Structures are given as structure tokens and as C-alpha cells.
Amino acid sequence: MFADLPQVMEREPEPLQRIWRVRDLVIGVTAMIVAFIAVVGTLALLRVHGFVAGFAATLLFEVILAAIVLGLARLRRISFAQLGFVRPRNWGLAITAWLGSYAVAISYALALLALKAAHLDTSRLEGGNPLPLGPDATPLMLGALGVLVIGFAPVCEELFFRGFVFRCVRGFAPLFAAALISGLGFAVFHANLAVVVPYALIGALFAWSVESSGSLWTSIVAHTLVNTLSFVVSVAVFARA
């Protein structure tokens, strides 16, 4: 019985290496806010609207998120492996995080139904984060959106919110607090009150998967699967409309 104890202990998740400092978090978040204001402000000044402008601005901002982290990592001499781009201890954690996301979404929907049954106004908490699919959307637009939503967003957002924010806070805070903070940041980033609660919990779940697997790939894969299914469903609904 006791002879098996060392093998059991070897399977316990190791704490993530502390690679960031508090000042890195301040610099990174400040750079993100400045970039957001600059992108939105530029669109307002140029008075450009429509799919192309929105797509270009979103893509640019996603790339900026990744550039902030990679730039700081270069200054701090942090490698891709240290950022979490390593093979997970258990790929199954990506599936757990993916399915857990739907458990969160279903629980949130049931909670809203309960609040409605109690005659409380939940109108500001309803709705998701729909894709900008207007009646004039073309196959090219759909393809471009697919690349953005399925290809760029999971990698860039997970690198920033889990590889950077979560890892920064995890350096001086317990797992629960660090995961929740990164989740809240992830939720606020989507600028939609209706998704703050579920996205915060999903973001925290993704952070747990990173901590447990020792790899950023688990949250990237889970995020990609969530976005892929959401995109496919949105396109299917759009096609039937």
C-alpha cells in the first residue's frame, strides 16, 4: 500500500512556475486598455462602420493582445515553454474544460429562469455574444469570421488572460482568486453585461485547466471547441433565416 504512495504523489499537479511580476501585470493591462481606446477612437474619428471595419478592428485588437504578452515575455526572457506552450500532463482536461463551459452556460440559463419565475427583471442579463452576421453577409465574410473566431481569438485571448493575467496573479494569490480574476477580465473584455457571469466562470474554469495540466494548450483547445460549435450553430441559424 505505502509502496504505491510515491507514484500517486508524482501524479499530483505541480504549481505553475512564477514567471511574471506585479509590474508586468500593470504594464500589460494598461497597454491593453490604451490599445482598446486607440482602436475604438480611430474608428470613431474615421467614422467607418460595417463588417470590414469591425472585422479589421477586432482582428487588430486580438493580435495586439498577443503582441503585448510576447513583447513582455521577450523583455523578461520568458520562453514559449515557460508561457505554457508545452504538452499537457493530461489532454483530457481540455475536454473537461470544454464540457464544463456548457455546464456553466446551462446553469446560468436555469438561474435566469428561476429569477424570472420570481418576477425579477432579467432582460439586461439575457442574450449571448452574437456574431455580426447581417442579411448581406457573404461566404467570404463567413469564412473571415470563422478564421477570426476559431483561429485567432482562442490563441490570442488565452495567451493574454491565462498565459499572462492568470499567471501574473497566480504568482501571489491562491488558485481560486487568480482563476476568478482572470475570468472576470476575460468577461469584461467582451463588453457585454449579459455574458459577464458565465464568461467569468468559464474563464476561471479555463485557468483551472491550465494549472492542472501545466499547459496553455488545454485552455486554447477548450476555447477553440467552444467557439467552433458556437460559430457553426450561428452560421446554421443564419442560413435558415
What does this molecule look like?
With 241 residues, the chain is mostly helical. It has one domain (15-240). The chain is 73% helix and 0% strand. The chain is globular.
Keywords:
single chain; 241 residues; mainly alpha; 0% strand; globular; disordered N terminus
**Termini, distance in Å?**
63 Å
Kindly provide the radius of gyration, computed on alpha-carbon positions and rounded to a whole number of angstroms. 19 Å
What is the global morphology? Answer: globular
Number of helices in the DSSP assignment? 9
User: What class would the helix/strand composition place it in?
Assistant: mainly alpha
In total, the number of strands is: 0
Number of domains: 1
Strand fraction: under 5%
Mean pLDDT: 89
Give the ordered list of helices and strands.
HHHHHHHHH
- Name the helicity range: over 70%
Poorly predicted parts: 1-12
Biggest sheet descriptor: none
What's a quick, concise take on this entry?
The protein has 9 helices and no strands. The chain has 241 residues and is mainly alpha-helical. It has one domain (15-240).
